[in-house]
Amino acid sequence: MPDIERSRDSTSRGHVHVLGASIAGLLAARVLADHFDRVTVLERDAFRAEGYRDGAPQARHIHALMHGGSQIMAELFPGLLEELESRGAPRTRWLERSRWYLGGTPMRAPRHTETTLATPSRPLLEHLLRTRVATYPNVTLRDQVRVVGLSHTPGRITGVRVVAAASDTEEILPSDLVVDTTGRNSAAGSWLAELGYQTPTESRVEVDLGYCSRRYRRRPGDLGGDVAVTASTVPGMPGAAVLAIEDDAWHVTLSGTLGRRAPTDPAGYLDYAARLPIPDVLELISNAEALDDPVQHRVRDSIRRRYEDLPDPPAGLISMGDAVTSFNPIYAQGMTVAAQEALVLRAVLGEPGPVLPRRWYRRIAPVIDTAWGMSTAIDLRSPLVKGERTRLGTMFGHYLKHVQLATAVSPYVTARLLEVINLTRSPRILLRPGVALRLGVIAVSRQVSARRTRHGEGAPPAVTPHAVTPPAFAPPAVKPPAVKPPAVMSPAVTSPIPDAAREVGTLLVHGREDESDGVISLTLARPDGAPLPLWTPGAHIDVRVADEDIRQYSLCGDPAQVTQWRIAVLREPAGRGGSAYLHEHARQGAELTVGGLRNNFPLVPGAHTVLIAGGIGITPLLPMIEQLRATGRSWSLHYGGRRRAAMAFAARMADDPRCTLHPEDEVGPLPLEGILGAQPADGTTVYCCGPEGLLAAVERYCRERPALTLRVERFRPRPAADVEAGAAAPRTYEVELRRSGITLTIEPGRSIIDELCAAGVEVPFSCREGTCASCETPVLAGEIVHRDSVLTDAERLAGNTMMLCVSTAGSERLVLDL
To answer: What CA–CA distances, in Å, run from 198 to 18, 157, 159, 355?
Structure first.
């Protein structure tokens, strides 16, 4: 192979041991082979030509090889990238055959970029690197060897203590240099402490990232020929990444932060995908052949071990890769940083004298600073993420938010950000005039657009989906510029808006139409015309109405329209006043506070899908109809109402034979027995939204037909008689917040949400009625008395999640993953 031809350093440096045949370990071995007489790589696991190593659980999840890392690997191993492609692992320019969504908004593709993305699986990349390293005559790869400690003389590490699986006997391997590449669980600090040396301090950022991955068969035409889809993961919004890998497979990873993670059962996996802010992933996997079962992995925090601050580390030992810094995996920085450190190692080895640890750590610190500063600045923008915040980091994180927003409209900004993400350019490039001036122009343009819209001089500029193409990591919810509301839309604000209602901000009523007797539709847009978060059929939002109340409304427009949302409002004379307020005051140009975008009613089509709507319950089903039509799925709609003139959007269904209208004054109530009894049992999914009487009746029919899969949407709590009574809740019970280390006492008449707010613990909430699922929280231990209107019977029986606003304890103690 061409890479073997490199001339070796004529200076003899003896024998080096590399601990761990990880990506970092193999890159280090490649560089060390040019400078040491002997290089021995010690690996705990057994080497395999295919499959996963037990010691690398993260290998079962996607590994994107960023441009900076791939170019270094190509330099160290000429022909590697071409061999990966020949094995079926795609390589493409960013945003050329890929889709990247940042916080649900697509990134505008650069006009031209040389920044590439390679998508091999971790086992394939490791296998090819290991095969190439093994061809060096002075390199020995030993597997099934467990390192248990170090040997030393005062001030110097002289070898490693190992136990081979075959002998189960400890031996000491003398070494002139030990290179620790054993990853985020490195024991080097403990080994140093055992020998009496000082250990490094650690910086941690607690993101609590959970992800769940599965492989699927890749078919011609999937994703229109694209090879990657990424929806960024941020607190409060699930994310995903889909990469085409070798063997005609898709590798799909669904992710969440702060304790949220996709389940491993196939139905739950699909349901989680349906909650993503983009439809691409669900559309791909809902009909794809699964090649394995979903598998979970959890990374509680990013870790940086500050070896560079040690005043006098012992000679003979250095660490690199994840053993020094373990990054948040969603930014795909780890392999590239390891490759950059390999180049630093090559440079240090080319200098006279031994490799001194203090000099080594100070040389790699700038490499780590760049990646660590970028990823933690983004993560720490969320107040729910724990970690040390600095003034400079906070300012940079805020600036990055504006850079990320600008990628929706500026190909130039996109190109610069991609270079930084791929670690080929310093983040300082984002501060240069070429980027900063564009950010200023975009901000001014949005302000002018906002003024024109408020004064009725024109609509917000449209951003069509085909004009933009997508990104890699995510901004938090963005608050638009403060705009003084018209007097008619400015109720007094005396209490804080719940977290869920802060996720979007102020939207303008851009259009209003009468859809039927008593029903209006409202088209909403940002004041500056910027893109809104993407959504999928079944999603709903929170809208603040008079007296600071919040109401939930289904989005009923086109998910592909990224600058506008549409809701429909039925005026309810006997209601609580929210619908009347919107009917009277939500005129064109008025402002509404909107947030809480979520989807508790996602569309997961069955072999046949039955849609049943009663009255205004048609709204969440409208985008489902369009998606079912577009994807050619089998479906039918039964839409009931008191009279035809009051059935909103009925005209849309008039010419479609799959849609049946049931005006009660003409044909009587919905014939549920005929509708559900006529459906083939296996593979049929029923979606129902409407008044409580209809929902209860459909639930009764489906209980008698357990082969049917039923999903319902409620915007009001279940009647008390229908809510699970469970065991009588104790008068007083305790709630332990496992991650926060806090225990609260819940007194009679108080909800868990009440006590969390009183204790200053931030959790999202909105309805306080158990209907919106904003406050859904994982439960680690204890019995739950469910009083919500969201969870299915199966989810209640599982007992691993609850709505904190209404549900309570059936035991003396609950343990929450907070």
So the answer is: 22, 14, 18, 19
The tokens for 530 are 């910027």
Nearest to 188 by CA among 314, 335, 84: 314
The predicted-structure confidence for 655-699, as pLDDT tens digits, reads as follows 889 999 999 999 998 998 888 876 666 678 999 999 888 988 898
Report the relative pairing of strands 15-19 and 709-713 from DSSP bridges. unpaired
The sign of the dihedral angle between the CA atoms of 127, 128, 134, 139 is negative
Q: What is the CA radius of gyration of the chain?
A: 29
Mean pLDDT, residues 106-116: 89
Q: What span, in angstroms and rounded, lies between the C-alpha atoms of 789 and 713? A: 9
DSSP state of 737: E
CB burial class (10 A; 0-12, 13-18, 19+) of residue 77?
A: buried
The region that residue 615 occupies, defined by phi over 0 for left and psi between -120 and 50 for alpha, beta otherwise, is left
- Specify the pTM: 0.67
pLDDT at 531: 80
- Residue-wise burial string across 296-321, b where 16 or more C-beta atoms lie within 10 A, e elsewhere: bbebebbbbbebbebeebbbbbbbbb
Residue 29's closest CA among 361, 355, 327, 345?
Answer: 345
Closest CA to 31 of 360, 305, 426: 360
Order of strands across the sheet that contains 145-153? 145-153, 156-164, 170-174
CA of 430: how far to CAs of 330, 418, 420, 477, 624, in Å?
Answer: 21, 11, 8, 21, 41
DSSP conformation letters of 509-562: EEEEEEEETTEEEEEEE-TT-PPPPP--TT-EEEEE-GGG-EEEEEB-S-TT-T
* Tokens (6 digits) for 207: 């993101």
pLDDT, position 482: 31
Q: 789 to each of 51, 261, 432, 717, how far by Cα in Å?
A: 44, 22, 52, 6
SS3 at position 206: strand
Alpha carbons 815 and 720: distance in angstroms, whole number: 26
- Matching residue, tokens 């007194």: 747
Encoded tokens for 312: 């006098």
CB 622 within 8 A of CB 652: yes
- What's the angle, vertex CA 76, arms to CA 32 and CA 248, rounded to 5? 125
Strands 325-326 and 302-305: antiparallel
- Dist CA 225 CA 284 (whole Å): 12
For CA atoms 194, 196, 197, 201, give the dihedral sign: positive
The winner for highest mean pLDDT among 2-6, 217-221, 451-455, 722-726 is 217-221
Residue 734, phi then psi, degrees to nearest 5: -110, 150
User: How far apart (Å, rounded) are the C-alpha atoms in residues 549 and 100?
Assistant: 36
**Beta carbons of 302 and 380 less than 8 angstroms apart:** no
Residue keyed to tokens 């024998």 = 15
The distance from CA 187 to its chain's CA centroid, rounded to whole angstroms, is 30
Instruction: Identify the weakest region by mean pLDDT among 59-73, 307-321, 350-364, 396-410.
Output: 396-410
User: Would you state the pLDDT for residue 121?
Assistant: 94
**CA distance linking residue 815 with residue 809, whole number of Å:** 10
Q: What share of the chain is helix, strand, coil (3-state, %, to 5)?
A: 30, 25, 45
Q: Beta strands 776-781 and 659-663: pairing type?
A: unpaired
Integer Cα distance of 465 and 212 in angstroms: 29
The residue among 246, 272, 244, 270 whose CA lies nearest residue 99 is 244
Q: Do the beta carbons of residue 795 and residue 756 sit within 8 Å?
A: no
Return the structure tokens found at 661: 């209208």
Q: How confident is the model at residue 467 (pLDDT cuts 50, 70, 90)?
A: very low
CA dihedral of residues 315, 321, 326, 332 (deg, nearest 10): 160
Residue 108 and residue 465: Cα distance in Å, rounded?
Answer: 10
Amino acid (one-letter) located at 333: Q
Residue entry with tokens 């691993």? 800
Query: Shortest CA distance to 157 belongs to which of 172, 142, 136?
Result: 172
Taking the C-alpha atoms of residue 178 and residue 42, their distance in angstroms, rounded to an integer, is 11
Dihedral sign, Cα of residue 421, residue 426, residue 432, residue 436: positive
